[in-house]
Amino acid sequence: MVFGLGAPELLVILCIVIFIYGGKRVADVGRGLGESVTQFKKAFRPESEQVQDVEFHEVTPPDDDPAPDGEKGE
Question: What is the rounded distance in angstroms from the CA atom of residue 61 to the CA atom of residue 9?
Answer without folding.
Answer: 66
